[in-house]
Specification:
Two copies of one chain form a homodimer. By secondary structure, chain A is α+β, with helices and mostly antiparallel strands. Chain A contains eleven helices and 18 strands. The longest helix of chain A is centred in the middle third of the chain and has 15 residues. In chain A, 48% of the residues are buried. Chains A, B: It is an enzyme of class 6 (ligase).
């Protein structure tokens, strides 16, 4: 069996690592270069989407910012999962909000902004502070603005107007204005839906971001909001007749959950599943899109993940910490770039906390800020 | 970092799967074709040993039947682990017996046989029944004879003489005669030794063979002979100044262990470690030969392994059994060929037993004989 993945980054690579033992070959389509790549050897296997599409049994995606010119032939092939509707909803906040409304799940109050009049109306109707996000190509904190007081309106709008002018040359850009949510913390739910409608969810994961980029994810077994999150997952997945792994990010506010955004794919906050559960999100995505039964998703060991950003070397004695696993992506280092991640597990939360403290001491602090803020959270899992 | 593996089969492939996330590239040298292969993409990367040796940081092996013409330049490179002495001991039962004597570990009584006079002397000195094994190229039950009564001597020797005549055209073949051990069952110990002498052992594994080929391996936590096996492992590994994963097969006779044979490499009876322990034998072999700290080897979940021989398809609903993992090797099916394996885990032994019974029902019985003989053994683990 052959699976074609749109995108040739680390997510395709980690899918391929799980697919190979199932005798499923993964090829990756690099949307920018138009090349077909072997995600494990990096060998160029060919050029152009058409032939790869013909040869593939299944097509899927590792990211959602894919041009329509690529999505359309994939959708027409009849073998694209989770399909272009889901990918488009993940890549355009306007479609995403419409989907969340249809699924009747709670979100922050929001409105669409195309011009200054819309912007002023948003401030009036939603109140301040506001978060403004570009509709397209926004991820890892890119294309986001905040306004806290009316005096900032002119400056913030000047920034946004400049951004819109630049990006709308190429694409149908827009802005979504959202009421700022003073959330307690952020969680995500990663789950897999099979083509027969069977769904399995991993436990909720608590996520800590630094400068808009995920820094640490901590799997939380038996979180009191797990069932609520699963209901919301189902509402969204059923709207899309979804097949594959879907990730949903939530704000936790007291005992309520608000959907922040969705990712129609395997997700950085699910990387801990490689060590903490029987079947990782990558294995389950491959199983789902290939029509195979899903693997187990329960938390087997208390586990957390730390992202490695911008550097391609770490002290070798890190691996002396028990149950620590390095996952490098084989990429060339650039400042802020996701280069790999560390998974850390333990027998029990107290041991995980101790090992995490040990890890923090060994990591270069300048590349791993704020890790210690997650330490006290481990007591709760 | 780049590791060159001598041999391009499934063991190199499974090492490469574990090495990639460590940003360690594995290349495989196919001893027969003289080609350098990418073990995950099967791409031919080059030809000839010399250049690959120059480019590699570390050289290791996935099997022990390697010609001296290959072993010698590897040894001379100074980066070959576990090194040619260990590989030669694994590939020649005469050297293996000498090693075991030096290490002062118990084995069956044995003697070397070159001609009919030696053969008759072996019958007299060791008694019947006897097991006779070819010194070279013997594995998976190949090159083995048994003699139970004096009347069989002429027939058995005729077979052996014919075998010696054929194989000694190419190699310095010989025969080792061993006293037959009426063992209770067979176990193996897989362990890893780092270049600083640190050793970690997996739990003893009970092995069930059919026609001389491994069929099922069952990890046994807290086996009463674990400590004894570890002592014997250390005695052998220290003799060899061993670096890497080493496997030792034992006969269990009451409360004693007799070494049957050693394998200076990752071993089929350690495949369960991919699911049952934190760091698999493949990960730990890579860590050891690359000079990295070893990963944890304790049994995290009751786990067993079933070999898939001769077929390249199994019912898809196998994957619906919880905690069942398929590991295919991407090979073309031939009768009796090792095509893949199944790992099965559970929360507790009783659950593993139940899942194994479920698995046995789904497997085509003609390709999986005698599995049910292992069912009652699970109660003990």
């Amino acid at each position: 069996m052959k699976v074609l993945v749109l995108g040739a980054g680390q997510l395709a690579r980690m899918m391929a690592l799980e697919a190979l033992p199932l005798n499923i070959d993964v090829e990756a389509f690099d949307v920018r270069s138009d090349q077909i790549i072997h995600p494990l050897s990096q060998q160029v296997l060919g050029e152009g989407l058409q032939q790869a599409l013909r040869e593939a049994d299944v097509v899927t995606a590792e990211f959602e910012h894919i041009p329509l010119s690529v999505l359309e032939p994939c959708q027409q092939s009849g073998k694209f999962f989770p399909g272009s509707t889901a990918i488009l909803a993940g890549g355009d906040r306007r479609r995403e909000k419409a989907l969340l409304q249809q699924a009747e799940v709670s979100t922050a109050a929001f409105c669409l902004v195309k011009n200054r009049a819309d912007f002023d109306a948003a401030i009036t109707s939603l109140g301040l502070p506001l978060v403004l996000k570009s509709a397209l190509e926004g991820y890892d904190g890119k294309g986001q603005w905040r306004i806290k007081s009316p005096e900032q309106a002119d400056d913030v709008w000047a920034d946004i107007a400049q951004f819109l002018k630049q990006s709308s040359k190429k694409i149908n850009q827009g802005i979504v204005a959202e009421q700022f949510i003073p959330f307690d913390y952020e969680v995500s739910l990663v789950g897999a839906r099979a083509n027969d409608g069977q769904v399995k969810w991993y436990p909720l994961t608590e996520n800590h971001h630094v400068n808009g980029v995920l820094s640490v994810s901590l799997a939380r077994a038996q979180h009191p909001l797990q069932a609520k999150a699963e209901q919301m997952f189902n509402a969204i997945a059923e709207q899309l007749n979804y097949v594959g792994v879907l990730a949903i990010e939530f704000f936790v506010v007291g005992d309520t959950l608000l959907v922040n955004e969705i990712a129609p794919r395997v997700h950085n906050s699910g990387h801990w599943t490689q060590q903490g559960s029987d079947s990782s999100q990558f294995a389950n995505h491959i199983r789902a899109v290939c029509g195979l039964p899903l693997g187990e998703t329960n938390l087997q060991r208390p586990t957390l993940m730390v992202n490695i950003l911008g550097i391609d070397q770490l002290p070798e004695n890190l691996l002396a910490i028990p149950e620590l696993h390095l996952h490098w992506y084989g990429k060339t280092a650039r400042p802020g770039r996701k280069m790999g991640h560390i998974n850390l597990s333990a027998e029990a939360p107290a041991q995980l906390k101790q090992r995490f403290a040990q890890l923090i001491k060994l990591l270069p602090a300048e590349h791993f800020p704020e890790l210690e803020t997650m330490l006290p959270r481990i007591a709760d899992i």
